[in-house]
């Protein structure tokens, strides 16, 4: 039966949530109605997303970026109060999965991004399985790979050129994982792809000869939550819908 308890338990096991050390609680973050007919997926549990989910008659929302992050102000005031009030007034459950959703080898953000970008997955970057190493089908220049990514993600990536070499072996990690460039450089890949960029990412890329591609935090993390939502909806016979609230970052 599609109850919030059953669905949350199923995802908990599917994503092996207990195996992760994370910066926010994974799973049911805000409890709503018991029986589910429809889930609405999105990248981040923002006010605009909740408003859209209410319009779509969601019983639960399923997101990658939920709430209650480590070190954030725990008080329910201001922006947080507005969001929580809206959600609770409509009795909607909030399910959020962060690192476990990045890492899942099939439904995860990294696996799904590889599918979208036609990258063959070969290995994981860290002990939790977050980030991957892999290979493009054929050699591409940085400009060619950048154009291909722009076409597939609908957003122009920022390219940091680190030499004349063509790209075949790549590493990637969705979202704000530009810090993993050191690991990617040590592994000797031709290029590293993530969502965001910091000032020093440019230096690390140039001085290690690893091309860097900042393809967008939001743009790279739209796919895991869709794959997970579709999988869960099929399993429990739920209606589902993905709502994309545009975010250029
Ligand atoms: Zn993220």
UniProtKB/TrEMBL annotation:
Extract the SUPFAM superfamilies matched here: NIF3 (NGG1p interacting factor 3)-like (SSF102705)
Keyword annotations of the record: Metal-binding
Q: Which InterPro entries match?
A: DUF34/NIF3, DUF34/NIF3_sf
Q: Does the keyword Nuclease apply?
A: no
A single Pfam family it belongs to is DUF34_NIF3
- Highest taxon listed in the record's lineage: Bacteria
Q: Where does a divalent metal cation 2 bind?
A: 64
Q: Which Gene3D superfamilies match?
A: NIF3 (NGG1p interacting factor 3)-like
- One GO MF term: metal ion binding
Q: Which residues bind a divalent metal cation 1?
A: 65, 102, 217, 221
May I have one GO cellular component term? cytoplasm
> Among its keywords, does the record have Calcium?
no
- Family to which the UniProt record says this protein belongs: Belongs to the GTP cyclohydrolase I type 2/NIF3 family.
Q: What is this protein called?
A: GTP cyclohydrolase 1 type 2 homolog
């Amino acid at each position: 039966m599609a109850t919030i308890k059953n669905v949350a338990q199923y995802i908990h096991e599917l994503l092996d949530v207990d195996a992760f050390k994370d910066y926010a609680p994974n799973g049911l973050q805000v409890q709503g109605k018991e029986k589910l007919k429809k889930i609405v997926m999105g990248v981040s549990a923002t006010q605009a997303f909740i408003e859209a989910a209410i319009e779509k008659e969601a019983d639960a929302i399923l997101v990658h970026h939920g709430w209650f992050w480590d070190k954030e102000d725990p008080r329910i005031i201001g922006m947080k109060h507005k969001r929580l009030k809206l959600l609770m007034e409509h009795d909607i459950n909030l399910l959020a999965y962060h690192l476990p959703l990045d890492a899942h080898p099939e439904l995860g953000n990294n696996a799904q991004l590889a599918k979208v970008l036609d990258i063959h997955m070969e290995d994981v970057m860290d002990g939790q399985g977050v980030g991957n190493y892999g290979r493009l089908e054929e050699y591409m220049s940085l400009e060619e790979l950048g154009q291909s990514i722009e076409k597939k993600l609908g957003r122009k990536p920022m390219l940091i050129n680190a030499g004349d070499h063509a790209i075949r072996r790549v590493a990637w990690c969705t979202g704000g994982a530009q810090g993993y460039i050191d690991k990617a450089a040590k592994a000797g890949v031709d290029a590293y792809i993530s969502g965001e960029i910091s000032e020093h990412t440019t230096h690390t890329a140039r001085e290690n000869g690893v091309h860097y591609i900042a393809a967008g935090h939001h743009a790279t993390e739209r796919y895991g939550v869709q794959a997970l939502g579709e999988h869960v909806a099929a399993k429990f016979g739920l209606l589902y819908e993905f709502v994309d609230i545009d975010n250029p970052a």
